[in-house]
Amino acid sequence: MNRLQNVSDPVFAPDGKHLAYSVETADAGRDVFSSDLWTVALDGTPPRRLTATPHSEWQPVYAPDGHALYFLSDAGEDGITQVWRMTLHGGGPALAVTRVPQGVDDYALSPDGRHLALIVRDAEYPDGKRPPNPKPFVSTRFQFMEDVTGYLDERRLHLYLLDLAGGEPVALTRGPYDHYLPAFSPDGTRIAYVSKRGKDPDRHSNWDLFMVEAVAGGAETQLTRYPGSDLDPYWETRPAWSPDGRRIAYVRSEAGQWIYYAPWQLAVLELDTGREYPPALADRFSIKPQWLPDSRHLAVLVEAPQAMHAVKVDVGSGKTTMLTRGGRYDYGLAVSRQGEVVVNGSTPLRPFELSRVRAGGRLTALTAHNAWLSALTLAPVEDIRFRSADGTEIDGLLLKPLDAVPGRRYPTILRLHGGPVYQFSREFMADWQAYAAAGFAVLAVNPRGSSGRGFEFAKAIYADWGNRDVQDVLAGVDHAVALGVADPQRLGVGGWSYGGILTNYVIAADARFQAAVSGAGATNTFASYGFDQYTREYEAELGTPWDNPDAYARVSRPFLQAGRIATPTLFQCAERDFNVPCLGAMQMYQALRSRGVPTQLVVYPGQYHGLSVPSYLVDRLQRHIDWYSRYLMPRN
């Protein structure tokens, strides 16, 4: 686990011959993750490390002349994130170019390299004087908490312009709104960004694209007016200006009532006419579009069942061409001014690495930061397909133990993914390999509610969690038993986030499981309302608890019917998680402890929804293996 390296943030140099990117690694001694910057050439020259600090450097952007690199780093003495600059050819140490007391959340570099667009949160203490004790939290906002950020008061994220020749950042946006994802126009005169407006932005998901002139006091213009969500910042996608400056590519979703069940679909805005339209890939989850040099074609990452691929789109005709194919999961994309395309992709036996896209979908590997895995024996991943109880076709993935023998059955762990609108894909999963090495088969099912198969499939569990998706995953277990792989007397189940929630539904519905692990799960939705960050989504999907108590009771079945659960269950949660707070795990643990069902509660101190301490990640996985081994492995 600690040797794995995570490659991300690929970006081309202006000459199109090199890329910069970041690599995150675990420092086991200090028990932290940190990231460094690397560069690699398209000609096959081995990658070269640019930074080697105990801090983190990420989100690189080349200066226009290609001789310097800007990036975000927490390397200052105060540990606050700033924009830094390093000269690439013997120019001395990297230096911070911003000194914002509260830090920089995001940035963009102007095409001429003279200005930075900065996203900065309003200062908590404008006078810079921090009292000995924190002041009380006070909020009148509808959404008053967010994972990682914490409690939300009246401070907002605003867009600033910084002249790199000197001076202080100048605010370009104001008001009770947040602003995200700045992107300069090709001529540098305008900045596109994303914001939510209206009487109470906390109550809706109607994000829109805006534009402001890149000068102090510049005029602001709203660019999109689609009633859904245009470029929700959660989607990790920036506004992409076409090289000729006439269009912006982005992704949008119907959102509203359908919240995260509606696909994030490719869209294009024509700035001359104001036309907003999806050029292709209807009903497909798409992210991170980038323009090719001709300003007519886009490269974009598009989900397919159990995969994500790079696709080329003609925005005029709607014609699409696959750039990558097969059993892989591409989650990063870089396009050069010369038309080269590089993807950051993973396969079942390899974590994310950079590859150059060749004609006909051929890929040439550029990096191999996890080549050491070649010395290990890893479990191959098999595709499976089967029918659920009502005849719906469901897909999934199956790993057998490393020493699997045909005709022999094995203890099997049913893994459930988060989301719920997400899917298991053909990517490297370290925990699956660890389970297989420990002697378990792993069954990963994509039930209804998953992405990858369009809107109707995703929204099949809308306001009805733990019904059709439970039927689907249990049908997957039946299929694994019928294949002769799963031992029906030694079945485990587990997941994190919605995977933990679905685990609770499964063990409340079916007594065949001998062990369960429910991580960051909750199933008393009455208690979750107002206690996590999803109140807006609860009201869209379920209404309010006082107006629709039956809906809340329906999705709270595992807690309200905890008397039916007999499966020994390990509950885990993160102490500072506002996404799925510990309340849910604690209540389920207390219910099983009250009834005398074998159970255990593990709370990871100071952690958010996604654990970020290396030793905690190792601890979590080891506890899974130990728990499943206790109840599923034969005793000597």
From TrEMBL:
For the keyword Metal-binding, the answer is no
Q: Which GO terms describe its molecular function?
A: serine-type endopeptidase activity
Q: Which key words are in the record?
A: Hydrolase, Protease, Serine protease
Q: Give the source's domain of life in one word.
A: Bacteria
* A Gene Ontology biological process term: proteolysis
The Peptidase S9 prolyl oligopeptidase catalytic domain is annotated at 428-632
What is the protein name stated in its UniProt record?
Acylaminoacyl-peptidase
